[in-house]
């Protein structure tokens, strides 16, 4: 469903992606792991048409209106209510406003429907941003560190929703520097360091390959072993 083949991207004289190749399958959660500055957001921006690669090819298997996107910069309208924010995009997608109510329910924000974005906590804003991304039942969903800075309970709720979306048929592309999150959610992961994928595969298989057993801490130790860099 999502493929990149030998993607190169430069900003001036700096190469930020160097020959990136991977494949994320339908009905699976693909995790792209790497520290800040590794090139994760650049990859999402290329896949969603916000940037043009210098070399290589890619495909997402979906038309523009069949994709959903949740970035760190949420782009919500602060003076509009939660429901009004979603209704704006429902009108753009040409779908019923009932979908807005459904999306709010899915992320646990029904009771906050009439609150403005200015009144929301960070966790609530994250959930509203996710609601907007899933509003139109996208075939492909891009999530850029969706639980960054959230408390454990809120993060668990978002994890559950992400799993449900995957089981319903969405291909999900997730970026994170949280190894625990990657192991819990992802069928396949790629480890990105300075614009290069240094390893990829199923989390358990990567751990086994490098003699790691305890998955979560040891997957991080694999990354450190390969790059000499900690994820956080």
Report on this model:
The protein is α/β, with parallel strands linked by helices and 232 residues long. It has a domain at 1-26 and 36-62 and 171-232: 3-Layer(aba) Sandwich (Rossmann fold), CATH 3.40.50.300. 36% of the residues lie in helices and 25% in strands. The strands form 2 sheets. It has a 6-stranded mixed sheet with strand order 5-6-7-3-8-9, with helices on both faces. A 3-stranded antiparallel sheet has the order 2-1-4, with helices on one face. A hairpin with a 2-residue loop joins β8 and β9 (196-201). α2 (82-93) packs across α3 (98-106) and α3 packs across α4 (122-134). The chain is globular. The two termini are 29 Å apart.
Would you summarize the structure shown here?
With about 230 residues, the chain is α/β, with parallel strands linked by helices.
